[in-house]
């Protein structure tokens, strides 16, 4: 597979067009927070809203709205599919794992078991200029989740 | 500098065609670079140009044979360095129709425009005495710019307005992708003190009717500031003939190195304008309480100057002169036509700015329906084609066009029609690659 095909895996192309979690859902619980991230170099931006359960220790829903490239939109969509049901600990670990994979410049083989569809973004790590695109929604979600847990 | 003639000679001169451009390519080592399967097609000159060996040699030659502090020190080497520096100034001034004392070295065009804005600001604070009053702004005064500006010709004016209480207004872009000249007649008026506009849009490639805007400004005694970053490298430009008061351009967009640019200012204006940056090299007499300043251009050149870059830029200018700017302009007009017509024929691709057939520089910016510019750029890059993606430092213009970002291909004298065709071919593959067919497909974005 060429680098380009690794970057634009079918999973990513599919998610970028048929998006999960697009459109901010109204707050389900008191543990709800929103975070906005903006990439000034390309103008991509995203708003991610995270709701936790009543106890504040499990992700209930993750929705978003944004404008950006296929990589940033697909990564938001994948995250939105994966996150609900995760405990706060699992969520944090998954985000860390995703970040580590993206920063590895192609050196880390993704753990498909734990990353699921997000493993498809391994090819992005070879394109340093695009790592920020893939991380945009995840950074917003990480911040929103922290705030929601307060 | 004894062998500068040999060093500066381009491998082809006269009217350009594909054959001659292919000869010129041997002057640009970097353009032989190849990262993947395909040789590099460099279509990002609008952002920065590549350097011929002559320019690189001139900079090295300066350091090997002439390097010293300019305008200070009495030893022979200092004289050699000063001669090289001032010879460079004459060469570049000549190239843009300026007298040598009308050309101020800056780091780039952004600094040149900021220099003007901050000097006006200083005049507004009362510096420079009565003769600087004509540069002073305050509440009730207006600064006019346009919706098509690069941020470098917008934000310095926003800031100047904020510091002085003046009002910033702008000439909108019309539906035809050109500045609305009728609106300009209404907006520029008795309150206008400064009228700042671009010569060639770095996004749209459209060309401003400069004499017309200058006439309008003169009617109200407004000072004109021209952003000439995308014109000086690509066409014959004579600031004296154009009649502008100030103009800015950058060396790295015209075969020169980074770190050097210039401000043109009419001498009578520079002479009465207070300095922006102050310190060494720009003074005559200094006491603990105050200082007197040199005449222009040195009044505006505080601190150690960019000597090797100035010398290298002069070398770039000689290289361009030998080919002939009319020839550069004619060739790029042909490439621009080919680009504009070519992209217009691709399904789902929208040409931004004026339609094919309207005068344009050798560049196009496009919106590919359903595909983000970063994804367009990525696909082109995988085929060896370097273009610019993003907002090109013109967010308000993109907002006006209803988009956040675009893809821009910008050509120079080292591009062939084959380069343009490779870009067009690759562009035709973009939407199919992302699973989009006809123009109506791809509802996303």
UniProtKB/TrEMBL annotation, chain A:
GO process annotations (BP): iron-sulfur cluster assembly
Pfam families with a match to the protein in the record: NifU_N
Domain of life: Bacteria
Gene3D superfamilies, alphabetized: 3.90.1010.10
Disordered, as annotated region: 18-40
NIF system FeS cluster assembly NifU N-terminal domain: residues covered: 8-133
InterPro entries: NIF_FeS_clus_asmbl_NifU_N
One GO molecular-function entry: iron ion binding
Official protein name in the record: SUF system NifU family Fe-S cluster assembly protein
Automatic annotation (TrEMBL), chain B:
Cofactor(s) listed: pyridoxal 5'-phosphate
CDD domains xrefs: SufS_like
InterPro entries, per the entry: Aminotrans_V_dom (IPR000192), Aminotrans_V_PyrdxlP_BS (IPR020578), Cys_dSase_SufS (IPR010970), PyrdxlP-dep_Trfase (IPR015424), PyrdxlP-dep_Trfase_major (IPR015421), PyrdxlP-dep_Trfase_small (IPR015422)
Gene Ontology biological process terms from the UniProt entry: cysteine metabolic process
Keyword Transcription regulation on entry: no
Gene3D superfamilies in UniProt: Aspartate Aminotransferase, domain 1, Type I PLP-dependent aspartate aminotransferase-like (Major domain)
Protein's UniProt keywords contain Transferase: yes
Keyword terms of this UniProt record: Pyridoxal phosphate, Transferase
Domain named Aminotransferase class V: residues: 41-423
Domain of life: Bacteria
EC number: 2.8.1.7
Catalytic reaction equation(s): (sulfur carrier)-H + L-cysteine = (sulfur carrier)-SH + L-alanine
Molecular function terms, GO-annotated: cysteine desulfurase activity; pyridoxal phosphate binding
Function: Catalyzes the removal of elemental sulfur and selenium atoms from L-cysteine, L-cystine, L-selenocysteine, and L-selenocystine to produce L-alanine.
Similarity remark: Belongs to the class-V pyridoxal-phosphate-dependent aminotransferase family. Csd subfamily.
Name of the protein described by the UniProt record: Cysteine desulfurase
Organism: Rothia koreensis
Encoding gene per record: sufS
